[in-house]
Amino acid sequence: MALCLTLVCLFSSGILAAVYAVTYQPILQASQKALQESIGKVLPEGGTVSEARTASFGGQEYEYYVSESEGEPLAYAVTSSVNGFSGTLKLMVGVLPDGTVCNTAVLECNETPGLGAKCQTDEAFISQFRGFSGRLDVKKDGGDIDGITASTITSRAYTKAVRNAVELVKSFNSSEEE
Hints:
By secondary structure, this protein is of the alpha+beta class. It is built from 3 helices and 6 strands, in the order H-E-E-E-E-E-E-H-H.
């Protein structure tokens, strides 16, 4: 019986390893394509997008890309992650050098389907961030953002991710002025 169980485990492990080997590259390519599409979605037209860069801010690591023209930054695409209601909420946030939000795109969302997951599809919620430069908090917290109905935690998390990206970009500008 032990020999039979060992053979079944080895066979199953072999199949899993083969599936992993076959699917690894396509999954990686799809992930890279989604990342590039999100960068294109959140940045304004024009400029040359840099390779990925990293920065530490507020005790967290961020990956960002800079859209530049003639050596001057036009906008930044920042990957910002926060904890939502059901796990990590990861956004790509486009921010102009003055801190104005260009656009946002969800990269990863584990929120409740039909409730918090609406942060990916609710155009009324998403469109509030385009061109936004006010107080990045939901209205329940004294801010200017209307939350998703019945999804206060997700709305707060989404808004916090955007706020973190804006604060990171503003820190770039304040360090350049010094």
